[in-house]
Amino acid sequence: MKGRRGARQRKAVPNGALKKPRPVWFVTLMAFVLPGSGQVFNGAPARGVIMQFGMVFGAFITYQLTTPDTSAIGRMAGGLLVYVFSIVDAHGIATRRVHAWERMGGDALPKPHTRSRAKKGQF
């Protein structure tokens, strides 16, 4: 089936190939520790690299535009703004992914076969 020009085509995913998204707290923590890593864990590595370059570029620009008597935080304000934005962005995307997983019935997907435990007294 042909899609419209510019529209994204959905890929057919075989049953059981859907992976559970990472927990929101984990993605947010990773985004806090290393800018851009939250986007990588959300499955958008290019977006994570863009966040890292944006942070460095924003810090460079504000460093060049401020006077030497400005505080260090003020001189790096552009980079810090992108840093905070990357944390908020990673958290929001992770939350939407988990909600989408739950709407799809992700918890109801077939689990791999495991041996059931026998009741007491049974072999």
General description of the model:
The structure is a single chain. This protein is an all-alpha fold and about 120 residues long. The protein has a domain at about 25-105. The protein is built from five helices and no strands. The protein has helices at about 25-35, 35-40, 45-65, 70-75, 75-105. Helix 1 packs antiparallel against helix 5 and helix 3 runs antiparallel to helix 5. It is elongated. It starts with about 25 loop residues before the first helix and ends in a 20-residue tail after the last helix.
**What is the number of beta strands?**
0
How big a fraction of the residues is strand? under 5%
Please state the oligomeric state of the protein chains shown.
single chain
Flag low-confidence runs.
Answer: none
- Indicate the mean pLDDT: 81
Number of helices: 5
Distance from N terminus to C terminus (CA atoms, Å) equals 54 Å
| Rg, Cα atoms, Å | 22 Å
User: How does the major sheet shape up?
Assistant: none
Helices and strands: which structural class? mainly alpha
Gross geometry: elongated
Task: Classify the helix fraction into a percent range.
Answer: 40-55%
Helix and strand string, N-terminal first? Answer: HHHHH
Topology of this protein?
Blueprint (H helix, E strand, L loop, with lengths): L23 H10 L3 H5 L3 H21 L6 H4 L1 H27 L20
Helix pairs in contact: 1-5, 3-5
In short:
The chain is mainly alpha-helical and 123 residues long. It has helices at 24-33, 37-41, 45-65, 72-75, 77-103.
Keywords:
5 helices; 54% helix
